[in-house]
């Protein structure tokens, strides 16, 4: 008897710039994985043309009922947002943040690891077997959207603006528990909490206090508290001390870009915006942006999108397929099939084909 087919309904939102190239590449790889499963599962793709071109036509990054259109799907496969024709805060808030906050995707995970043949700026990175994961609080903090602008055009003191970082006890507790639970699944069994409570005496102090309270429930996990400035230095100087790094929305955004640069290129880093309660779809996207300087040339690095596809497979419980995709990415790098950002000459298409050929 043939195995039952499970179909995953996925929203495909390439959005802007190289997002179009890497999402198409990611879909090709996922289709190859579905074919290799012998019909055990498949993907039904729902295409959404939202993003900065959509904005030029409609004045919005996505329709008013955009979340309604996505809410019953199994996941969102996202590219990158941002284009020079739309102010960055408008494009980011109109699409990526609207989806993350609308679907309470409060945990954003961003793994950092070294790939074969990819040069890292860290001396001896491969021998040191570096591997850590940034957990980004993805629903509040500095991205809460509270603030305003007043006194436009005022003489003398000029305009005034405020931007508040909002930390709730519930928001802090859930992201810390997530980080500790994740650390329990990893060999390092350590959580490094990033803070700036020496300078920010309200929100970040609550952040620290909730961390200390949650840590008491995880006596088997080593902890440390590191100021964000010191953590940036640690990424560069002592990355082998890192395992799970939990940080606020803005701090983690900055540190995860640093982490992907440490692994060799921004184009390599994967991420998952998770709604761990599974009430809403989660969203899988590379860490990188839309890269207007290389968009449309067929040279974008698709590895960050492939890693995000692997995280999506894991989210669906397809751990074997996720692992085989990671192995295929490693083999492709071992074969020296690399895009320009990591020292090669291969195109997006070349890397995609090689990963498909290398699938177990
Ligand atoms: N694929 C990730 C992406 O599109 N990022 C665009 C961006 O500007 N992100 C900043 C942020 O999320 O804080």
From TrEMBL:
PANTHER family in alphabetical order: D-MALATE DEHYDROGENASE [DECARBOXYLATING]
User: Does the record bear Lyase in its keywords?
Assistant: no
Q: Report the residue ranges that make up the Isopropylmalate dehydrogenase-like domain in this protein.
A: 9-355
Question: Which reactions does this protein catalyse?
Answer: (R)-malate + NAD(+) = pyruvate + CO2 + NADH
Q: Name any one Pfam family assigned in the record.
A: Iso_dh
Q: Which GO terms describe its molecular function?
A: D-malate dehydrogenase (decarboxylating) (NAD+) activity; magnesium ion binding; NAD binding
What EC number(s) is this enzyme filed under?
A: 1.1.1.83
* Domain of life of the organism encoding this protein: Bacteria
- EC class: oxidoreductase
Q: What is this protein called?
A: D-malate dehydrogenase (decarboxylating)
Per its Swiss-Prot or TrEMBL entry, what cofactor is needed?
A: Mn(2+); Mg(2+)
Keywords tagged on the record:
Manganese, Metal-binding, NAD, Oxidoreductase
